[in-house]
Design goal:
This protein is an alpha/beta fold and 199 residues long. The chain has two domains: 4-95, no CATH class; 103-188, Alpha Horseshoe (Serine Threonine Protein Phosphatase 5, Tetratricopeptide repeat). The chain has five helices and nine strands; from the N terminus they run βββββββββααααα. The protein has helices spanning 103-131, 135-148, 153-165, 169-182, 187-198; strands at 4-7, 13-18, 32-36, 41-44, 49-52, 55-56, 67-73, 79-85, 91-95. Strands 2-8-7-4-5 form a five-stranded mixed sheet, with no helix packed on it. It has a four-stranded mixed sheet with strand order 1-9-3-6, with no helix packed on it. It is elongated, with a radius of gyration of 24 Å. It starts with a strand and ends with a helix.
């Protein structure tokens, strides 16, 4: 009996993609979803629970599509999202990653370390250009950062600083308001907005 065994630690709800073909010659859905450890909740893309592992495919409601999109959840383990070609599933076993004390460091922080380091480095470069009163050099780097990370409030604060340096008060206020919307807990942004609104 051919099988797929997938094992990949995920972030909070990472996506494991397994597209395989030709493992089953039959058209029926007689396979099974298993997990290690067993007893994981299997939920469809709509969030509704299909059952607990091991789960026979014929127990899953509405197998009319050609792909199966589901999430495995078990207390004490990282959530695992799967997207599989239905015809390729005979039997699969998903190894769940325990949420040990070092899970954040080993699974999350290490996965994001490079992008976070790059973001911080580029933001410091922008800030350096602004302090040195080189808005043209800051603007290009900042534009690219905002394209990649539009939800980072600190970047909108840098954008406000850039606009104020360029004597564009209205745009600067707008950038600060966006930063405040993204991070309403930041007291310095609120205080700056209140001070500038009074002027």
């Amino acid at each position: 009996m051919p099988s797929i065994a997938l094992s990949r630690p995920t972030l909070f709800s990472g996506l494991s993609l397994a597209l395989a073909s030709g493992l089953l010659a039959s058209c029926g859905h007689s396979g099974e979803i298993r997990s290690t450890p067993e007893g994981a909740s299997v939920r469809g893309a709509d969030g509704k629970e299909w059952g607990i592992t091991p789960l026979a495919l014929d127990k899953i409601p509405d197998l009319s599509g050609s792909y199966l999109d589901f999430t495995l959840r078990k207390e004490g383990f990282a959530e695992q999202r799967m997207f599989l070609e239905l015809s390729a599933i005979d039997e699969m076993n998903v190894k769940l990653s325990p949420l040990a004390g070092d899970h954040f460091r080993t699974q999350v922080a290490e996965s994001y370390a490079q992008p976070i380091s790059r973001l911080i480095q580029e933001a410091l470069i922008v800030q350096g250009h602004l302090v040195a009163k080189r808005p043209d050099r800051a603007e290009g780097v900042l534009r690219e950062l905002l394209k990649q990370y539009p939800g980072v409030a600190a970047l909108h604060v840098l954008q406000a600083d850039l606009y104020f340096l360029q004597k564009k008060r209205g745009e600067g206020l707008q950038a600060l308001r966006q930063a405040a919307r993204l991070d309403p807990t930041e007291p310095r942004v609120r205080a700056t907005l209140e001070r500038l609104d009074r002027q």
